[in-house]
Design brief:
By secondary structure, the chain is mainly alpha-helical. Helices cover 32% and strands 7% of the residues. It has a two-stranded parallel sheet.
Length: 110
C-alpha cells in the first residue's frame, strides 16, 4: 500500500537519478537469525549491483525494529554497497524510544 501511494503521488514528477527501482520487501524476516534476507534476492533480480552508486532510504522504519534487527539491516546494506553509496533515514533518540508516552510505545530503537 505504501509503495502504491508514493508512486501515485510522485507520478507527475520525473526522477533526476539515472535509475529508480522500487521493490516490496517483508523486513520482519530479520527477526532472530542472521541470514541473507529475501529482499536482497529481489534487489538483485531487479538489476541491483554492488558497484552502483546507491541511495538507501530508511524512512519511518528503523525506530520500529529491535537493535539487533537494525544492525542486521545496516550490515546487509553496507555489505552490498559501493563506497560512494549513501544512507538516509529518520531516527528517534533513545529517550523517545524508551518513553512511557502512549504515542511512542511502538518505538523499539533509538
Amino acid at each position: 500500500e505504501t509503495l502504491s501511494y508514493k508512486e501515485q503521488k510522485l507520478k507527475p514528477y520525473t526522477p533526476v537519478c539515472r535509475r529508480l527501482v522500487r521493490i516490496e520487501a517483508d523486513l520482519s524476516e530479520m527477526a532472530d537469525k542472521p541470514k541473507i534476507p529475501r529482499w536482497i534476492d529481489k534487489l538483485i533480480a531487479a538489476g541491483f549491483s554492488s558497484t552502483m552508486h546507491t541511495v538507501w532510504l530508511c524512512e519511518g522504519l528503523l525506530m520500529y525494529f529491535l537493535t539487533k534487527q537494525v544492525k542486521h539491516l545496516l550490515r546487509s546494506m553496507a555489505a552490498m554497497s559501493s563506497q560512494t553509496s549513501l544512507l538516509c533515514g529518520d531516527l528517534v533518540n533513545k529517550a523517545t524510544a524508551q518513553s512511557n508516552l502512549k504515542h511512542y510505545q511502538t518505538f523499539s530503537w533509538g
